[in-house]
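[scheduler] slot 2 assigned
[scheduler] job type: sequence-to-structure, two independent chains
[scheduler] chain ordering preserved from manifest
[runner] begin chain α
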Amino acid sequence: MELQGVEGMPDATFRRLTGIRKRTFLEMVSVLQHAEAHRKARGGKLNHLAVSVRLLMTLEYWREYRTYLHMGHRYGVSESTASRNIRWCEDTLIRSRAFTRPGKKALVRSDRAYEGVLIDATETPVERPPKNSVATIQARKHATR
């Protein structure tokens, strides 16, 4: 799957779509490609989506906060694959430390004025007990007497 008309898009439109500049996008792609090459060298699973497509999916997810079902449908993958790809991009970019914002102390000491709004609105997987848990069944039997 290609980047669906993103290549020839003006920088201003690309930024409105994804929230970042094309230059930053290319830097992120290079970090992710390096991580993907390292993963393949270790014998990891192959992914059918290109790294740039996975990054675009992640950026659109962050920008629009659509569900994994919607993102998977848009990119032709399952909901769990969309979740796994987005989580891999997030974790890889965090581990690279190339795109971190300065800490609170650095902002106070700096003469530069920063402006930014951060919103954490990520989906969290629900933790549920196993369906046929022995402890759950015993508790039910004990409660009925």
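[runner] end chain α
[runner] begin chain β
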Amino acid sequence: MDARGVVFIHSSPNAVCPHVEWAISGVLGSKVSLQWSPQPAAPGQLRAECCWTAPAGSGGALAGALRAWPMLRFEVSEEPSPGVDGERFCHVPTLGLWTGRTSANGDIVVGEDRLRSLLAEVPASRLASRVNDLLGSAWDDALEPFRLAGDGAAVTLLHQVG
């Protein structure tokens, strides 16, 4: 079953851009050429985004491949598909990689077992902070200026070669 998603490379040094394309190509099984543009939120850095279609679970594979370059800021989303939850992966150099399950409308979903465990283990004074960690709030805060700088940018459409 194929899934769909989006890769946002929010900031990359110019020298790393070909490596990013090779990494995405390796996961999707076809040559990828992204449309790179300057990232105003990080002068000297470039940004690109692409939509993809590939087997379910490819979002995690894409995030894993991109994680090889710790200086990248990126997001990978995979929409829910029949029998498979959606996921969002965010990477910020200072925070590392965060992942969360997503609902059909893109909200982060936290399972009841994680919430029960959190309630049992975390003092009330730290509860809000830990919920924010589960929701990826620090990653959202760090990436928001980079997201806004990409409004109206070109998007590359990719499909896995079967």
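[runner] end chain β
[qc] chain β: The first strand starts at residue 2 and ends at 13.
[scheduler] slot 2 released
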